[in-house]
């Protein structure tokens, strides 16, 4: 990099997250009876000046008058500001030090607090341009040096004119006075810095937006502390994912868009372009066709348990990892199932609807306790097993059937066949997963095998039950009641109608796929899934991924991490290591895990290496995706 580029960085709300004079006011007015009112007034003057709506010079004088500050307040202010240095400035200290000769802090703030902060980051004292306080004999900060160009309106422009820097000038700042430098022709580029504050009037004029210093460095091909600016990671969240997830992704610096309902395949093909992270629930189908339109997709987050709506193989082949929330709504489903078992045993639905029609039908006929009854659980996974424990606590006798061997909890009894379970159970509840082979696993034959008048629940997936057979069994009385939460065709949004042959049948509870829809579950999911996704993006961890080889990696420290995803064919690891050897790369650690289709190789390397290795890694035959992390 030649030395003819100069980087002008603003201080307030750019170098630090806050406006220093607001902070100074919070200290100096600590015991003032009208503290809040005065601070609000100071803030308004700052905002108005920064947005370019009022005279800067007048505002500065007015603010100092209001603040009633004393020089004894400055050490406390400096300590506070040190803690509030912007995150991206903090992490890019190496850049600030390496380019110290070309970095100027130009601020309408005051050197007395700016200098101790920015010099800690390698900024040269002679490159700090700011105002200075006037202090009276008692130590009060009564005003400022009016000769200083930066105390004047358009002061930054005047300063830049005087400096006449011999090269290209790039300005990074959040305020209108920073933009004005470019407008006056004193800078080649202005970047509106939006990490801490977004001033609409500034953003509207800026040709470049920098949500972080990383973005500024990335655009200008300057050395960065992290491998990729987080603001370039775009997240699309569908199906009303809980706002906590939006908040977590935004806090990480990602760009987030949300859609309240599910999207059709066509709509998703349109929207998926440039999306790095897709978040869905149970209704959006992530098909091979969708993936063909996904040019930047790294990860699909299923904000639920089931992942049958996602083409997991196609994701794998495209190097896209799929993560879900395997336990976050388990309890909610179990509680709904238990509630339905009781409601159906007492014929509550019919009695309640009669009451609403003004009919009093007090009778015990057709009503039973669940105690000592036999509950048959089909699919003894997380939900089935949890249900087993709670049902036993209510005095039920639990039987279960699963296609794989499962730990028997409490006194639950294993059935060797589904047939055996169906013959025994007074209640049959399905908690199998939605794999394609389970389509219509429960049909006429299974209903016929059930006990006369038994109760049936499905809170798993709609397609596992043959609906015609269920309707026939309900109409014939073979099944005396049912609780159905999931359907082969479910409306995409709450505005779409629900059509089903199950409507209007007596003693049938129909719920709109709400087994997992409790506040607790949604908050749990909204915390769990984004954290897993960010862990994958930031460290490569695939632990818990439903399609990728699971690797739990050590924290990345003093190294760069090469993440290579490839088709699992012989010789790829050897080729990778050849590339590393050819480029004399010092390997600090290597981790490999494969499944039948892909290999996942992580190589931690010394930070000093020839960048050619990156291109060479991408050229290794059978590479699906490659990225570098630091
Ligand atoms: N209604 C709702 O809102 C919700 C529905 N679900 C559904 O519940 C399903 C189960 O959830 P978890 O228990 O957490 O999953 P899990 O994977 O822990 O358990 C599923 C169990 O079903 C067994 N299984 C699969 N096919 C079978 C078959 N044909 N016969 C017998 N056993 C079979 C599996 O071996 C496994 O043990 C999810 O896959 C999802 O589709 C999950 C959460 C909420
Ligand atoms: O709440 C949802 O959207 C889906 C719940 C579900 O079916 C699941 O977690 O698998």
TrEMBL record:
The protein's matches in InterPro entries, at most eight in alphabetical order, are given as:
ACT-like_dom_sf, ACT_dom, AHAS_small-like_ACT, D-iso_2-hydroxyacid_DH_PdxB, D-isomer_2_OHA_DH_cat_dom, D-isomer_DH_CS, D-isomer_DH_CS1, D-isomer_DH_NAD-bd
Q: Which family does it belong to?
A: Belongs to the D-isomer specific 2-hydroxyacid dehydrogenase family.
What is an annotated GO biological process for this record, any one?
Answer: L-serine biosynthetic process
Q: Please give the function described in this protein's UniProt entry.
A: Catalyzes the reversible oxidation of 3-phospho-D-glycerate to 3-phosphonooxypyruvate, the first step of the phosphorylated L-serine biosynthesis pathway. Also catalyzes the reversible oxidation of 2-hydroxyglutarate to 2-oxoglutarate.
For this protein, the Enzyme Commission number is: 1.1.1.399, 1.1.1.95
Pathway as given in its UniProt record: Amino-acid biosynthesis; L-serine biosynthesis; L-serine from 3-phospho-D-glycerate: step 1/3
Tell me which domain of life the UniProt entry assigns to the organism this sequence originates from.
Bacteria
Q: Where is the ACT domain?
A: 561-630
Designated name of the protein: D-3-phosphoglycerate dehydrogenase
Report the catalytic activity: (R)-2-hydroxyglutarate + NAD(+) = 2-oxoglutarate + NADH + H(+); (2R)-3-phosphoglycerate + NAD(+) = 3-phosphooxypyruvate + NADH + H(+)
What keyword terms does UniProt attach to this protein? Answer: NAD, Oxidoreductase
Query: Which is an annotated Pfam family here?
Result: 2-Hacid_dh_C
What Gene3D superfamilies does this protein's entry cite? 3.30.70.260, HAD superfamily/HAD-like, NAD(P)-binding Rossmann-like Domain, Phosphoserine phosphatase, domain 2
Q: Name one GO molecular function term.
A: phosphoglycerate dehydrogenase activity
Species name for this entry?
Pontibacter actiniarum
Instruction: Provide the taxonomic classification.
Output: Bacteria, Pseudomonadati, Bacteroidota, Cytophagia, Cytophagales
